[in-house]
User: Fold this.
Amino acid sequence: MIPAADLWQRLPLELIERILDLLVDDYDQDPAYQWTILRHTARRQMRRIERHFLQYWVPKLTITLYSGPRCQIDYKVSDHACENRLGTSRVRFQTSGAGISSSLNKRDIQTLWGQYSFENRVAHLRLGEGILKQGMTGGYIVNDTDIVDLKVENDGLDIIFDWRRTLNALLREELMMRRLQEEMQTMDKKAELAAKNRWPPFPRIQRLALVKHFVLDIQMAKRVAVQLHRLNRHNALNEVKLGSFTHESQHLHKQPLPPLPPSTKPRRACCVMCSRQTGPSIFEVVACEESVVLSLDGWEKLDKDELLDLYAEAYGWNCYRSPGQEHNYEWQQASKNDWLTAYYLNTANVTMPSSNATGDDSSRGGSNSKKDDARHPKLIWPFSQTTARKVGGLQLVANSFRSSQGSSKPGKKSGSDGRNATVEGSSQNETTIIVDPAILNGDLT
Assistant:
């Protein structure tokens, strides 16, 4: 048998290059693997991939600057910035000003960029919105990695940075999180539950259980591991802190933090979230935008009804891990029901009534004011090519549902597996069967 190394040496150079071309093309929709692994297979492939990234993926990159918890300003590559410029390492991004509120001027934007640092990532990066994972909601790459060699111009409306090193930081961490997720999965939740006779026998319920596992045990844990790795590389002397570990997102990252310093302004009595002046951390952004459903093996083969149900299930567990709601399984199911109800009402273009189970219309953003539109953005269909970043507002919608109606208690009937299931009707006369939380909690007796 000829050793592989000798076999490659015997092949014509043209054939080797053709094989590598086909290999790179096979990963055309996986920029993280293309950039971090395949780009280093040969010099020709490095030039080819970098040219492709500059012309295709850099225009698909969005940099978002945050001002407070709601105002966000998107920067995209300027016109013709990526044409015939492979030799240059810097690109210019601009904002159209669409996300700038009336209370935010150029000086404020310049000040925000002046605060950008390792300890204060006021800007996040998103790559491939509406493209990666077949354009599914939450399928794009989002992170708060470094914008390398950042230079701010035109009073903050233009930024210039090193696109190669910026993408390198973003995509290396993306690949690292994939590997961490694989390692966490090899601990094998399925085997653990099966040993306790708690692994459900039905594939659809198994996928629901895995969604819960991904949300509660993996999604934030891998982010914490990557953030700590980043800190260790940047800060060997332990002199700086991670700005992503905030008190507002502590329920997500679960890292110990020092007590909050005395506030110069009186805080609201309800919680630290309502008193915040800072933008969201990467953990809060991921909780709203990233879909764990797309981590399931074979999700592409699932029908749309099941995918929609899995998206709602993941949203329910996202609400479950919010402050004060852990171990409240009724909250998880109520949140899931609210997500589905809001989706069906939105797709049917039905105005929410003010005198039924969904409660007072004014408490759900029924007004047409700009403030209400910002708090209750339009729901996004998970299979749309439209960007789904605003879907984070669903939590506000669901919370307002419950604040006006209390915990929902829909009727019960026997599901197809003989166990209890919740039946939720929609405005389109469709019915969604939602598995009883006792099944997902391991009570299979």
Residues 179 and 222 are 9 Å apart (CA to CA).
